[in-house]
Task: inverse folding
DNA sequence: CATGAATGAGTTTTCATTCAT
DNA sequence: AATGAATGAAAACTCATTCAT
């Protein structure tokens, strides 16, 4: 009935809302969205089940907020990638980019999976992911152009690079395979990316 | 307490089991594992809900069998990739590989997502995915060696190549972004992969 | 998800569905719609909570079916009122009508209240009540005309009569007041109704 | 365990309490007792949810106070009915009584329904209704006697009259039926009531 | 083997009431 | 007195799994 959600203004409330998001984030990451229930989230956040619905419309709403956290955590370092760069030395930039990508993935791999899988079933999740990729691609492209890189097919290059980095990060972070030497793989990816921008 | 699952010998039973797997496959792909219920699967398969438990231990068991179907569908064409190749002309092989990868992804993208997301939560799903990647990497590597390609760091090259192809396939199949020219991106990926094996 | 409701064909199922409606009827009548929960209905019907949703969309759906029962129980005897009448002797007909009305009310007074109050909040309940009143009015009018009664303002007369009978029935059934002699009141109502049709 | 309810002495408090009752009245009338929650009442009254429990024991307590308002609103004009009458001309009195009854019903029809339905479930509501009917019947009867009307079966006549008026008021106010000419129906009721007192 | 009705534990969500501030 | 965040019990409804037929 009361389809109203508190927009907390006071510090204590804001902290509480954030505790709930954090608890949701961790549980969704650990067990997936569908295997996590609101009672668990409330318990993990140290609040009652009722108050969860004071801050969020429903469980999905918690996910959407967790998505924002995730996006912030993962993409902030990547967007900042070229901030300290003054000259276009891809031999230096690429390894740094890979490090950042791997680190971001390492810190958030479970959530990544949870969100990625939901993106098939949830318009909004998909949309936000999409917007984000666009923002990253365009921001990095703009910075490269500002540093003097030619703009021909740049979006495609950057997008491909991001895609390769993510793909490698995923491999390394999960580290499934005994028969793969990940250092060597990293070298191959590095070379491929340097060639891409040559 | 018949925790026993029939191993169907007769043709009619085998067909029935396969219909259930197919129905499960389609529904899991369309709506995800958790948003599909067993009654729907049974209905789609044209059987009663009860009999599902005559062929499968539980819902997850259907998923596991669907996983096998998926694996077969996706990886058979990829494993067969080098079967008709007699000389190592990567300028020809790579575009073919990309086509196959994109096609496989296109045909099974929803199931890919469903399974991928479950792999975080389900040991066995993860394990089978892992085994499969290993098999593909090693089979393709073996074929390349047989065709005269040097074996140094070959697993890493092949694995990286697979990873890049999948990554591109995903991009192209989902086709999120207006600002990306996917033909150009395909060209970039093709060049990168040719360089990888040069 | 499965928004499907079984339409029971077999005798056992039909009996079960009727048991649920009966249990709902009794509980709604006794405690009102909002103070009755589905678990209670299930328990009273001797079934599990789950199966209730096999036969009914939701709690309101049980109410709607109970409404049909109510309508049948209350209005069947009233509709049949003039069936055995061959001549228009209101001195005989009116007392009979009052008896029937009081009896119907007596048998179903709680449900009457429950439904009546919901009619304000539920379109469909209101609609069915309305239809019913219309049917009763028109059926009785038609019978009177067939017996030779003039049709001028007949609907209004019949509707007024019904309304008076219900009103008296309510009074007598509840029997609130010590200071009222209900036999005398019945006499007054009888006279008023006879005069109405004179 | 402050189960104590403030009896407000100061003007501001009294106003606040009245605002809550008014808000409760309106919401109960509009949506029914069970579909109205205390937060809504508080909001509509412009107070906090907490303070509601400073003035009322519980939600039902608000209803009971709203009942008093209702009773006052509905029955005051009816009780005053014969105040200006000096001679017993029922041809004049009856139409006036019907007008008053219809008007009272029109102004409070939703609350009437809400309260009426609760009277089955709530002793106190039933009791107050009963007391009220008694008061109205007895007050009007006394006035009639003072004007020279014979007291034989007077309570029954008055009670019947009230009951008929209410019944007609309900019909006219809801105005369900296209096939009914309510002006004609009013005429019939008027005649019946005049005859009742003849 | 097959059916599909039945079970009941589990899930999301609401809301009257309390309580820290 | 007043606030409105917080509580937690209770409600509606779902669904994997079982079982009588």
Result:
């Amino acid at each position: 009935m009361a389809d109203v959600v508190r927009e907390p203004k006071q510090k204590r409330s804001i902290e509480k809302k954030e505790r709930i998001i954090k608890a949701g984030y961790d549980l969704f990451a650990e067990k997936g969205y569908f295997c996590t229930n609101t009672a668990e989230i409330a318990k993990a956040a140290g609040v009652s089940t009722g108050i969860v619905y004071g801050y969020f419309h429903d469980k999905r709403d918690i996910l959407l907020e967790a998505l924002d956290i995730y996006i912030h955590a993962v993409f902030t370092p990547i967007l900042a990638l070229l901030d300290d760069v003054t000259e276009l030395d891809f031999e230096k930039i690429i390894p740094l980019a890979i490090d950042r990508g791997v680190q971001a993935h390492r810190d958030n791999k479970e959530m990544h999976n949870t969100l990625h899988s939901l993106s098939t079933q949830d318009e909004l999740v998909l949309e936000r992911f999409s917007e984000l990729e666009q923002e990253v691609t365009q921001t990095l492209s703009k910075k490269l152009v500002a540093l003097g890189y030619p703009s021909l097919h740049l979006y495609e290059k950057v997008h491909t690079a991001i895609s390769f980095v993510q793909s490698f990060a995923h491999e390394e972070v999960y580290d499934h395979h005994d028969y793969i030497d990940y250092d060597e793989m990293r070298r191959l990816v590095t070379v491929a990316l340097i060639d891409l921008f040559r």
Observations:
- Chains B and D do not touch (no CB pair under 8 Å).
- Chain B has two domains: 11-57, 67-197.
- Chain B has a mean pLDDT of 91.
